[in-house]
Amino acid sequence: MKFTAVILLTDIFITAEGWPCLTPVREVYSQINTAAVLQFTADLTNLNSPRTFFVKFHDGTVRAMIRYNADKSYTTDSQPGVSITANTAGIVAVTFESVQKNSAGIYTFGSAGFSFRCNCLYILGEPTKPNITLKYVPFVRDSTTLTCSSTSTTTPSNHSLSLTYNWRVDKEDNPGGSRYSYSSSKKTLTLSNIVKNDTYKQITCKAKEVVTDGYASIRSDSFSFDVLYGPDTANINVQSPYNMTEGDTNVSIECSSDCNPGCSYTWTNLTSYSRISTNGVLFLDTVNRYMTGDYKCTSSNTGIQNKSSETTISTIVNYQTAVTSFYIAHEGQTLVTVNEHDVHIRITCEVDSNPASTIKITFDGEILQEQTNIMALSYTLNDVTCLQAGVYTCEGYNEYGQPSIMNATLFVRCSPRPLHQFKRNITSTLHTPVTLSFTTLAYPEPGPSGFSWHKEDGVRWTPLMSNADLKISSSGLQTNLTLLNVSQSNYGQYRVTVVNGLGSFEQYMYLKPEDIHMQSQTLNNRGSTVPNHTNRGSTVPNQTQGINNTETDNTAMIVGVTLGIFSTVVVVYAIYLTILMRRKSTDKGTFKNLLRKKTHPSGRKYFSPQRISLLRSGYRTYFD
What we know:
Blueprint: E1 14-16, E2 19-30, E3 36-41, E4 51-57, E5 62-68, E6 74-78, E7 82-86, E8 91-96, E9 105-110, E10 116-123, E11 131-134, E12 144-149, E13 163-169, E14 172-173, E15 180-182, E16 188-191, E17 202-209, E18 223-224, E19 234-236, E20 242-245, E21 249-257, E22 263-269, E23 274-277, E24 281-286, E25 293-301, E26 308-328, E27 335-339, E28 345-354, E29 357-363, E30 366-374, E31 376-381, E32 390-397, E33 404-418, E34 425-428, E35 434-443, E36 451-457, E37 460-464, E38 470-475, E39 478-483, E40 492-500, E41 503-513, H1 521-524, H2 555-586, H3 588-595, E42 598-599, E43 605-606, H4 609-617, H5 619-623
């Protein structure tokens, strides 16, 4: 069990409750709720008969006793929570298991007719919360002293314990250096060569009793160190030049100084030399571009005469990007039509902003041209295709406000062609509806009158019109043929023709039963005719952009390949017959040589492999 015992010897004569105490009086220091041990010496001189010694508190209550016999054997007794041990030499130890605040005081040990031995038990307490005082508020470059004061709460209070102190300055304990000096117990702290930044220092201290296991106080309240100074400079909370945005409201520019006890401020517009504010804030209600200029802040110390500082700031008013012009080919043109394969089509975007902007020209989500810190940007189209028709966008922005956007539309004249790949072979079961659809790429748009449908009927093509069995719908760039109830006669090949003012295009489709095996490729892909105009290609702005997978007709190719294969077979067969006849007439000797026996280096006769092959093929009879 933890206990604290500190012995301080004195040469004075102490009387406790009428009992004279022989010196020295032993001082015992113990923390609360710990074990405290008192030690005494029994007077065993002339021990001829039993002698009883009592341990008494200063109020006279007996806490323990020990009885020595003539042979110096002994017996002990004690109250609960108290134990007593001894030896034959008369050294007696009394242990209090868990001392409390009320356990503090004088304890006597003695026997009737003998002088008393005394112990004083001190119960250690936590020193009071310290308080910091400052000798005087210093000026810059002065010195001043701070004092930390605390009181011991150890009981009884007549002890001789002292306190030592710990200082903390801005989270640093007992800072060193030439500017800091302390008294021996660190009760005082002297700060020399004061600077204005010392004003912001936060200082605390705490006390600790100088004894084993002595308690430390809680830390004092934070003491804000004060210094008289300034102002040295008038500080503005924004950098010069200060950028503002046109249209901003409630803009505040603050001026402050390092002065104490206080500062006053004045703002002056150096353009008009008018005083516009008498406090530390330059307040601008609504910013406009004419507020660009220079402003001066004057800071003065309210407690020191003729002490002031001035600072000037420049302001710049910025405003967001506005696309002022976006045109194709010529200024002011936002709807422009060109021919496919035209060259040097220039697209130009111009903006107004402060500062300069980032400008990008985009088409169908793709950035064509982008550049930063500029006021104008151009992009040139060379060899225009119909897929480059559509809406072009100019976007300009800087760090102020939202981006500005303007559109221009390019139309490209081109003859019809397929917009994308599609399935030419369509399957359908009987007695169900089916739709044949085709989308073209063309400008001008064919419209409803630019599409026509035909069905192959033997050797001729029959035009189709909407009736009770089928429905044809065409608009813009797409046409649909819907068979409302598929019959056996509906199976076969269909042709859709697209026409605009620049040319035409034909596309073939094949409808077949769903339960019949795949037709040959020749029947499935009858192909398309060649347009009667060169397919220069174009699109209109509302088309799907960026798809250039057109379909071509395979009929001519298949017929050509078939005729080529047939011609090749005929030529090869003719060559074969010619070679065979020439060999029969001119190379008969060669074949006979092959049939003769050859002589091996060993002298043995043998037939060559060629002879064996010829003999098996019947050439023996031919040469015999």
